[in-house]
Write a structure and sequence with these properties.
By secondary structure, chain A is mostly helical. In chain A, about 75% of the residues lie in helices and about 0% in strands. Classes of the chains: A mainly alpha, B mainly alpha. Chains A and B meet through helix 2, helix 3, helix 7 and helix 8 of A and helix 2, helix 3, helix 8, helix 9 and helix 10 of B.
């Protein structure tokens, strides 16, 4: 193995790999954000009284969790521009629109992450004892206050371990969007190994970068869990 | 929506089903066998063995499967001594590289599931088995492993579904499984939605059958929990 390939600066690929790691982190954060946004609506729909609203949410989570991530990415990668162009046509724009690889990747991974987050947050919602909501009502809290003071703090506590798992999944799924051409860790390793004929060196570096990202986020989630469980009595 | 294209695509994608099922079943079977050993290493008191198992699981669960596949398929070729030795006939085939990567990956995840199952066996059970004179291999074969498998089955069902989905990644190293063929047809016809629906339906059907099978095993293995009717 030739470690000189990994020095920073013009001679080596070190700085390029680090920049790619930053892109991976950005895509993951954006996707996780999109996923959490989706999961709010997903949870509300799953807990709704209306049959069709529940059905839509159920179909969404079942399909996305049962189909390979790569297929979802291909659908958006090949179909995304077409969909946007046909919407633009309705508004009278007939030119060619190409979606940014970052946007497609973040939306695709976000849609996948959203399905998993929905299940986690729904479970956390159901874990809050109903008696607490009755008690809150009896002291005169309205819907909004109950949501902000009773539900949110507890849902957050119950959901954190599950969301930590979803984050790890999301982070690792971003490796797949190399197929869209976005230069994140995997694509950069692919490019570098293609031009230096040292694939092992670069893919093992990529693996190490992912390990650093997953380990660091694990630590952060652990301390967040400790923080959220501050007030919980333990036997 | 182009229904004609969808009907036309269906048999073409079914050709890839064969490869997908081969990859899933071989890697799950081999991975599971090694996972039992790995779980036992992880639970052993020997510091060195324990450390080995921990590091293995840490690496394979902390990196994306795609990196693992690429590392084996593209990465190994960097070393000349491997290219000149007899193992090269194994590593030059994308099919075997894919099976190796998937097996190593599922082994790490399954070992954690089995470890959880083994640790959930109550101490009283082990104690009473020991009091009747069972020990070592017999204790594991008759008491600990059966109870552990029953405990671990729901989690292992999830792992099986993850593996079905994971096989789609082998299309990146030129293997023509369902996803590989789907990608090819999408690139040719440029109708991603239709192909996505057909390929998606095939995967959903496989996963549906897997969940039904796991449910069936769960019911069969827990007769004492069944309600009288």
């Amino acid at each position: 193995m030739d470690l000189e390939l990994l020095v920073l600066g013009d001679e080596g690929w070190g700085d390029e790999m680090l920049r790619a790691a930053l892109v991976t982190l950005m895509v993951s954060l954006t996707a996780m954000g999109i996923g959490l946004f989706i999961s709010i609506f997903g949870t509300l729909s799953k807990l709704s009284n209306k049959f069709y609203v529940r059905l839509i949410a159920d179909v969404y989570t079942t399909i996305v969790r049962g189909i390979p991530e790569l297929l979802v990415i291909y659908l958006l990668f090949f179909g995304g521009s077409n969909a946007v162009m046909s919407v633009a046509k309705l508004f009278g724009y007939h030119g060619y629109i190409e979606l940014n690889a970052f946007v497609i990747g973040a939306i695709a991974i976000g849609a996948i992450s959203g399905a998993y987050s929905t299940e986690v947050i729904r479970g956390a919602f159901l874990a809050v004892p109903r008696g607490q909501i009755d008690a809150a009502k009896s002291v005169g809290m309205n819907k909004f206050v109950i949501f902000a003071r009773i539900l949110i703090p507890q849902v957050l506590r119950y959901a954190l371990p599950g969301l930590g798992n979803v984050w790890q999944l999301t982070l690792k799924d971003t490796a797949l969007i190399m197929v869209t051409g976005l230069v994140e860790i995997m694509r950069q390793a692919h490019i570098a190994s293609g031009s230096t004929y040292s694939p092992f060196t670069f893919y093992i570096t990529a693996a190490l970068l992912y390990l650093i990202l997953t380990t660091a986020s694990n630590t952060i989630f652990n301390s967040a869990e400790n923080w959220a469980n501050k007030g919980v009595r333990r036997a | 929506m182009n229904y004609e294209l969808m009907i036309e695509t269906f048999p073409k994608l079914l050709v890839g089903l064969n490869i997908t099922i081969q990859l899933v079943s071989i890697s799950l079977f081999v991975g599971f066998c090694f996972a039992i050993g790995l779980a036992l290493l992880r639970l052993s008191n020997n510091l060195f063995l324990n450390f080995f198992a921990k590091t293995y699981v840490f690496y394979f669960r902390g990196t994306p499967l795609l990196v693992q596949i690429f590392l084996i398929y593209y990465g190994i070729a960097q070393f000349e001594f491997i290219r000149e030795s007899f193992v090269w006939s194994f590593f030059k085939e994308p099919y075997w590289c894919a099976i190796l990567a998937l097996t190593l990956n599922t082994c790490a995840y399954s070992s954690e599931i089995i470890r959880g199952g083994i640790q959930s066996v109550s101490f009283g059970q082990i104690e009473s088995a020991k009091s009747t004179g069972m020990s070592g291999f017999l204790l594991y074969r008759r008491i600990i492993l059966p109870i552990a498998f029953r405990q671990a089955l729901p989690a292992y069902g999830n792992e099986m579904i993850l593996m079905v989905k994971a096989t789609s990644l082998v299309s990146t190293i030129t293997i023509m499984d369902i996803t590989g063929i789907a990608r090819l047809i999408i690139a040719k016809t440029f109708s991603p939605v239709e192909i996505f629906i057909v390929a998606g339906l095939i995967y959903l059907t496989i996963n549906f059958i897997v969940t039904r099978l796991v449910n069936f095993c769960e019911i069969k293995l827990t007769p004492y929990l069944r309600r009288a009717n």
